[in-house]
Automatic annotation (TrEMBL):
The chain crosses the membrane at residues 14-37, 49-70. It is a multi-pass membrane protein. Keywords: Cell membrane, Membrane, Transmembrane, Transmembrane helix. The keyword Transmembrane applies. GO terms for cellular component: plasma membrane. It is found in: Cell membrane. Its main location: membrane. This is YitT family protein. Pfam families: YitT_membrane. Signal peptide: none annotated.
Length: 71
């Protein structure tokens, strides 16, 4: 019984993390990038790289590359 509760708790956590990540990705692609707003943190640096390279490096790839050293 404890294993099932633990599994359901972990599934809920992963689901909420996935939903939060999707909301963040949508907000960056719908609001930040088209209106040239650079938010704080890694996503802001990735947005700046996107505009400095004339959109040759996508924001998502730049965020992935910039986040690798942080883990």
């Amino acid at each position: 019984m404890k294993d099932i509760k633990k599994l359901l708790t972990e599934l809920k956590d992963y689901l909420l993390i996935t939903i939060g990540s999707l909301i963040t990705a949508i907000s960056i692609n719908v609001f930040m990038v088209p209106y040239k707003i650079a938010p704080g943190g890694i996503s802001g640096v990735a947005t700046i790289i996107y505009y400095l390279t004339d959109a040759k490096i996508p924001v998502g790839i730049a965020m992935l590359v910039l986040n690798i050293p942080l883990f």
